[in-house]
Amino acid sequence: MTVLDLKSLSLRHVNSALQNASSETSWVLENPMGKHAVAAGLRESLKVDIKGSVGYYCGGMNKNADVVVHGSVGPGVAENMMSGSIYVKGNASQYAGASAHGGTLVIEGNSSSRCGISMKGIDIIVQGNVGHMSAFMAQAGNLVVCGNAGEALGDSIYEANIYILGEVKSLGADCIEKQMTEKHKKLLTKLLAIAKIKNLSSKDFRRYGSARSLYNFKIDNTY
Amino acid sequence: MTKLPQTFPRQSNLFDKYTNSEIRRAAQTGIYDIRGGGSKRRLPHFDDLLFLGASISRYPLEGYRESCNTKVTIGDKNAENPLHLDIPITIAGMSFGALSGRAKEALGRGATIAGTSTTTGDGGMTKEERGHSNKLIYQLLPSRYGMNPDDLRKADAIEIVVGQGAKPGGGGMLLGQKISDRVAEMRTLPKGIDQRSPCRHPDWTGPDDMEIKILELREITSWKVPILVKVAAARPFYDIALAVKSGADAIVIDGMQGGTAATQEVFIEHVGIPTLACIKPAVEALQELGVHKKVQLIVSGGIRNGADVAKAMALGADAVSIGTAALIALGDNDPKFEKDYQKLGTTAGAYDDWHEGNDPAGITTQNPKLMKRLNPVEGGRRLANFLKVMTMEAQTIARACGKNDLRNLEPEDLCALTVEAAAMSGVPLAGTSWIPGD
Fold this sequence. Notes:
Chain A is mainly β and 223 residues long. Chain A contains two helices and eleven strands.
């Protein structure tokens, strides 16, 4: 295990060490003190423990690494993540998991507005609530919310699935409640297990997705 | 009966034939018109400027013998590997999806022969394009289609696209006809849907956020490549100042003549300002911040020849970018396809329904049969020739102005033919020392 202290080392030094890690697979980052882009651009199968809260874009574009944040995260955690996982012990600010193509993002606390915006295949599990415009234009993947969802959930959603346990303040354009089939329950059970959530059952969740009524403009431009 | 004299039938300038046809089209269909390209209306442009050349008070350079540098470096402020270009003319971002894979390959080939860069677009990076482009700029767009860190690290520069001259404040549009299996897979979308790209980035909202976004991109790419910010010509003074504040290494500003693959006609023709009008305020912002020529300015939107290149540079640009002109060089709107254009209800030179995917020239299409009409090797050669001619034309003008480097062209070398052009570009009306508003 290698310990890097962000109080004394530059962000570049720390990220470079993580991005180019070859033999060492276990890392601890101390004193993140809200710094931005911590552990961004990782590519190897590492375990990274961040001992505190971080700013914007923690774990941005992550591939393969498993990152645990022992604190809260600023906007854009796990943005464009490709694979691996990011586990946040605290709360997340806006745009958590934005545009992420894969991997798993778990947030133990709440996630602010636009959680899962433009998501493209990531699985996001939020144990608390999510703010307004979450899963906006979500293309693929799963957003699981064990609390409530704010206004305009799933606005202009494509093929992503949203699972909500609590209340939904309002649905966005083209987002509708959909049938919770056995296949979906099975998948949700798996996602809850990944997030180590034991006291909730997939059968209590409701599923939301696209009505697909915005998929084709009714236009003809041959005139 | 005596026939009384009649006036000649008078067509309205206000309700002209095009306007009337659009009213009839709208009345029939109930939908707005979508098309590709940039503004087609008459706008103050580089044609409204002239170079003064040299005479007794200025000393020219010999046209063929004395050297005139065309090389330019983009993004040497922060990046370990700035973009070194042989000519100050780059190829603008055009997506795979909007264009065929072959067209992207042709652009890469042409740019590489000419020693310049090409740019991805709203559909990710293709093998064809990366493989055939010696220097490739990778765009980070609001949609983030196909965005991934591996491609990001393969890029020679990154361009954060905030806006596009054809549609400031608007997102992209790619209609179902062009969403083939490959395009759908690259964009993580169902095949055949009409796809709307968002107009806002998903993970930042303003210049303070963008500054942090730029930091993140630098961290992911180990501070190796330059980061450009592309903005539409809207409020150039403030937008350029904010882009500089955010830490951009270079800025692309795209006027309303800049093309798009598809958007509403009303957007193209009525939102944004002309290219000519955006350069002066952009340069003033850079000068005020003390970074003119340090944070490079790339101007795009209606650049058609070496004179336009020279004029943009004389007004303060470090380089220009071409899109529509590059497509025409490849064969877009070529009269040799006239029969096919007529079948589509249009004519060579006017074809702009690029979104429908039926391009007779095989460029703006995903139809396998039509795509074959473009030979990427031949297309690349044509583009390289065109870039070479543009460069030589710009050099011809620069030498006539006594400049041994295109970057040394200056507003003092110019005059304006119209009061509007003088006011917009900040150069005096021809034969006077009058700059309106100065």
